[in-house]
Amino acid sequence: MNIAIHTGMAALAERYDGLIVDLWGVIHDGREPYPGVLDCLDRLRQAGHKVVLLSNAPRSAARVLAALGGMGITNERVDGLVTSGDVTLEALRRRNDAWHTALGHFFLHVGPARDWGLLQDTSHCEVVGLEEADFILVTGFYDDESECAADYRELFGAALRRRLPMVCANPDLSVMRGSRTVPCAGALAAAYEALGGEVRYHGKPHAGAYDVAVERLDGIARSRILVVGDSLRTDIAGARAAGIDALFVTGGLHADEFAPAPEPPAAEAVAALCRQVGQEPMAAVARFIW
To answer: What is the pTM for the complete model shown?
Structure first.
């Protein structure tokens, strides 16, 4: 396995016209941008590159962009944002397949208050108890600072007895918040599946999210697009499935397994981890910097 190690985007920029870039673990740590990120975005913009952000945030792009503005990540620096929340919303609106068509319109929301309102202004209605629900919409833990998936066993057991399907609006298992790793909706969905529940995921690594992001790049061929992400399971796997080159940022979700960023990761360590999970990005960097 031959994965090139680079110090930043300068060595790769000429190969691509467009980038699809993850947020948490690449652009910011959940609280503030990583050092050098805004400079990198500016340099890419000056060189004529298009940049679309692709996030497994289970909220609308408008809400996420409003929060990013406070970090200096504005429309002047990026060409768009696609969220798993928007992909979920479209899937539930269109109901283009038999599974989604069979869903009812009453849902129980499992997730924090910051995710409320995803299905607002649609034909769906949020209920407060399982006995009224047609399906579960999971966007995260009620409290990701203190809970674990085992805390939901009783709720999920009751849902299974009613054979309720689950829609997962964030396939991530975990994400960085500052220097800590916190669990995400994907961990709850995986727990529900392990108990025998039926789940549909919207967001990375699934194809629909990448298709929307490619559309936002206005006709740039996939051979001239680079996906930048810190999760081998979602970002890198999804890029591979979509037929797009991927750059692995080691200073995010997998930071504990490498030298502290911005020191470049050891090629042997990167190759070993990628072999372990069955993924092969075309290159790796410690941080998304120029």
So the answer is: 0.91
